[in-house]
Amino acid sequence: MDGMSGVALVVGGASGIGRACVDALENVGWEAVVADLKPDRDPPAGITLDVRDRDGVRGAIEQVLESHAQIGCVVYAAGVARVTRLVDIGTAEWELVTAVNLTGAFNVLTACVPHMGRGGSFTLISSVDSQFPVAGLAHYSAAKAGGEALVRGAALELGHLGIRCNAVLPGVVRTPLMASTLDRPGISEAFVAKTPLGRLGTGPDIASVVAFLASPAAGWVTGVSLAVDGGMSLKEHPALLDGAFPG
Predict the structure, then answer these.
(1) DSSP 8-state symbol, 129
(2) DSSP 8-state symbol, 101
(3) Within 10 Å of residue 22's Cβ, how many Cβ atoms?
(4) Residue 247: what pLDDT?
(5) Which residue blocks in 131-178 are alpha helix, DSSP H?
(6) Model's pTM, two decimal places?
(7) Lower Cβ count inside 10 Å, N or C end of the chain?
(8) What is the mean pLDDT of residues 174-203?
(9) Are 109 and 50 in contact (CB under 8 A)?
């Protein structure tokens, strides 16, 4: 693809939506590096990374730069979720969810920016839950909303460098992160019923949009939170807390 410069770094790229983003980016010509707690590639194409460790993130970026002159595209797909009533969220759970979904995005973004040139892009995988919260996901929704605010601030501050920052908001996608929830009786059917396009999402549904945002075709797109959800955000979400469904 014309206009690409540098490597594509996909954080959280070993599974789920992140893995689909790696495939989509490589399919259009990017060379991708996977950074993950358990990367599915050997170095230098795979780097072990805990996004909560700011010094570790900086070290990982240095590893990337040992074999690549520049970072052209960053996708932040690391994430973790728990379904817990607000009043029952403990300190450790709050810190885990916010650290991975929000602070980790900050750590990666700030470490990468000095090594990105004009035309570079940063894309955060957020969630429609950031704008349409679900009972039981208050901490997750708050962290995702914060990540989108971070993206907008970054778009404002980095625009003069030619670096674009956007967020993609998936609806319900069957991934390892969502498997335990979707396997509960009635949950998948309830989400499909609330989705105008009549199905759950797939990794490639999200990844194709991510690849677009990383491309020159999106060269005048920055600071955007783009829902990719089959229309689910047009309707009220199903409940997830215990008691809403049997089993």
Answers:
(1) G
(2) I
(3) 26
(4) 41
(5) 138-158
(6) 0.93
(7) C
(8) 89
(9) no
